[in-house]
Sequence to fold (140 residues):
Amino acid sequence: MLTINERRVGEGIILDLQGTLLFPDDDVALLGVVSRCAGNGGRLVVLDIAGLTRIDAAGLGALIRSQNLLASLGGELQLVNPNKLVGAILRRTRLDSVIPTFGVEPGNQERSGGQGAIRTSAVAQVNAPWWSALWSDETA
Fold:
């Protein structure tokens, strides 16, 4: 079962995901919340996936559909804090090179993906200045 807690930080919306992202209910729930955020003007949606314990193909599809929805409205989806299991799935499917993914695990503030490791604080300054305070080296 998926639990989603929403909070607004600056110009972005952070959705904290806890539990599973599985077919048939969890993927639909995520899409519903992302659609509502986009409908309310949220153009940058950050999914904090540290609390995801399992994800299946439908869950991965929900991430892609969420990204496509936001992109069609001029927005962006980002993932932060994947745990080891979810991070491995994102890397294996190469989804981490399609959806910007930050933070390999707590305490390791590097970007995951095919372009090599980049300090999160440097990426935040370029891509999302409003959240640089949340993920800077000072908060690690």
About this structure: The chain has five helices and six strands.
